[in-house]
Specification:
This protein is α+β, with helices and mostly antiparallel strands and about 425 residues long. The chain has helices at about 30-50, 65-70, 75-80, 100-110, 150-170, 185-200, 205-215, 225-230, 245-260, 305, 320-330, 350-365, 380-390, 400-405, 425-435; strands at about 10, 15-20, 55, 60, 85, 90-95, 115-125, 135-145, 175-180, 265, 275-285, 295-300, 315-320, 340-345, 370, 395, 405-410, 420. The strands form four sheets. It has an eight-stranded mixed β-sheet with strand order 3-7-8-13-12-11-9-10, with helices on both faces. Strands 15-14-16-17-18 form a five-stranded mixed β-sheet, with helices on both faces. A three-stranded antiparallel β-sheet has the order 4-6-5. The termini are far apart. Bound molecules: adenosine-5'-triphosphate and magnesium ion. Magnesium ion (MG) binds next to loops.
Amino acid sequence: MTVPPSPATATAPGGGRNLQAIRGMHDLLPAQVGTWQRLEDTARQVLEGYGYAEIRTPIVEVTELFKRSIGEVTDIVEKEMYSFADRNGDSLSLRPEGTASCVRAVIENGLLNQSQRLWYRGPMFRHERPQRGRYRQFHQIGVEVFGLAGPDIDLEVILLTARLWRALGLTGLRLEINSLGDAAERAAYREELVCYLDGYRDRLDADSQRRLATNPLRVLDSKSPETQAIVAAAPTLMDHLGAQTREHFAAIRAGLDAAAVPYCVNPRLVRGLDYYNRTVFEWITDDLGAQGTVCAGGRYDGLVAQLGGCDTTAVGFALGIERLVELMELTGGRATPPLDAYFVAVGEWAQREAPLLAERLRDAAPGVRLMTHCGGGSFKSQFKRADKSGARYALVIGDSELERGVIGVKSLREEAEQRELSLPETADLLAARQDAS
Ligand code: ATP
Ligand code: MG
């Protein structure tokens, strides 16, 4: 059987086919992983610092879940989902976002008898046009809070993100917030908006013309410059908010002011998903080109009931790991901690002993970053490797060191004579080095 050529294959020089990753889905190589880990570790620390608990849900769900939550007339459901028929004919989809799965999980597992502050992380899948900051497999860290209705929790999730940026050393992110009102307020606004936009129907982009009938608020979110110009003069939802929604929004603003977190109110911020109400927010940077939104979220009080759960208020956000990692890389900073030591073993006896001594060092100095040389070779070639490894010390043993029960310790970063230390002394040195880093 001949395999038809596909975009995921290329002809190798020998005539065979090299398999390639799927377009828009990327390998994460060791050089990049350090920054990812720093982001993930910092996020986890910040989240735990606010008492949030992690939840993990499957990557595949029934397609119906996303249709019912994200909305039929959204970019995601209309054209971005990886949906396929399971072997028994069920329509399944790779998750395009985390909120729907999270809501399904808390309903299904009966977690809504008390309030929940949850977070998750993992890959999401959307069939978008791949470009900088936009991939087909991308990764998010997200937060979902259930059962808390007041502005205090909206404020908390925003302050939590602000703290995360500080912990990551990211500056220059700006916060935009808006209130989408409640269902009735939005319905009244919707009529007025349709009326206004109808006057410019012919000048709207094709998607917006279609959305005018199905989901007119999304027109506010259009990326087309001409549509944006029309939208700039449109009536705003802010003018249609009732007293309670207005109060809720004012409380968040007051909290942000008091916490000295700068923000701007963007009356045209509507978000791409259908389920939001009241508070929506985005963190945006100008340093990443067109895909500048690194974190987005808001309140979605109706979604739990809409998916069959009891009436439960909810608020959350998701941040795009790839975009934040790119931002972290731009601002520099060392990502992966360097090795503390590289173990050089010359001769057969030393090669047998080195792994055992390394184990004892790892026992005595927990957390030490110690790499042993494998594959033998001359002292010179091993020492070259040690230097290249970025380690702080080379630990050297040969027959002579073993006979005398010592380890040669040579600093690779400073001018200093090689010393001979006992195993406990070496362990102390490496442990002290860790405390200092
Ligand atoms: P956009 O307007 O950029 O398409 P969105 O509204 O579709 O964003 P959300 O669904 O709110 O995005 O996802 C939250 C965050 O996840 C985004 O702000 C972004 O940082 C990230 N994100 C979304 N889609 C992608 C993607 N295809 N590739 C990389 N990151 C993404
Ligand atoms: Mg999108």
